[in-house]
Amino acid sequence: MRFVFFTNTPAHVHLYKHAVDRLERGGHDVLVLGRDYGCTVALLDRYDLPYRLYGSCGTTKGSLFRNLPRHYARIAPAVRSFDPDVIFGVGAYAAHAGLVGRAPAVLILDSEPTSLDHAVSRPFAAAFLTPHAFGKDLGENHYQFRGFCETAYLHPDAYRPNPAIREDLGLADDEAFVLLRFNAFGSHHDVGQSGFTPDQRRQLVETFADHATVFVSDEGGTLDLDSLPAREFDIHPALLHDALSAARLVVTDTQTVCTEAALLGTPVVRSNSFVGDEDMGNFTELERRGLVVNTPDFEEVVSTGVGVLLDDSIGDAWRRRRDEYVGGLVDLTEVIVAVAEAGGETAVPGLERWRRGTERATPDRSTPLTDKST
């Protein structure tokens, strides 16, 4: 059989990398259509995926829309010539490629606020696959799996931490470190959204540097680290998950890195304008499980982070909660491969029809994030 996978961002490379490998080893033909965005190409090369670039995109809000015509002009002939049996992706590119290639398009996504993408994809998608915590109904072809998009590569069956990561980062064996990840807010779904201000970013660095080594991963590249007690996170992006796993604390205004840290059992604080009553299901579910602190209050970000750095037991408790929860989630790669080999059909183990409210199976976390909360 023949399959096309779209990797528009670095997260999409991780989402599909193991499925691509499994399908190729199973004798299938696979084409990965990638976009040169952030470190996407570096990851495609690192994992030796059979990719072809359809275009590029910057981190500014206007870059995507300026490049759309050229992207589609390259995607359409590539899909037609490859003649896939099933197409996998996250949004409109894959859905519209399904129309061009006359193949079912299976979209795997986890963000409720991307309404424009949902609207332009829905008429052309054969199926939407979302986490069990996803809180928006996408129609009769909407299915859910018990997990997160990140369980395609961070499920315990799929991921083992790299013991050499501290050496890669230039750290002593017992040296505590904090990873700060800042978003560029340049995607179309980030319009009108925001995270930490420049002053808040500097305050985070200066405060946490009193307690641990601080690494900064700044997607927009706007923070001047020369004047701050921090180091740039400048090792290969494929090592990010190893760093997240080894960190004492992660603080971020991004989405994916928050979920990744939570699934690795690392204390993580997330703060951006998405946080609130209408927050995405992923994050409300992970907070209920005691694996994420979501807050729009900057002072709470600082106090929670300092509390984690001053109390070793918090990290131990966090990991115990993670072990109890993540072991019951599906390895999403198994689901993707099953759907692919079934020709896009969704009657496979690990999938069921989406139904509202499945993410509320457990009560809210109501105890402090200490060893007593496990």
TrEMBL record:
InterPro entries the record matches: DUF354
Indicate, by first and last residue, each region the UniProt record lists as having compositional bias (Polar residues): 364-374
Region of interest: Disordered: 349-374
* Compositional bias per record (Basic and acidic residues), positions renumbered to this chain: 352-363
User: What Pfam families does this protein map onto?
Assistant: DUF354 (PF04007)
Q: Where is the signal peptide?
A: none
Q: By its UniProt entry, which PANTHER family does this protein fall under?
A: DUF354 DOMAIN-CONTAINING PROTEIN (PTHR39662:SF1), DUF354 DOMAIN-CONTAINING PROTEIN-RELATED (PTHR39662)
User: Which protein is depicted?
Assistant: DUF354 domain-containing protein
User: What is the protein's species of origin?
Assistant: Halorubrum coriense DSM 10284
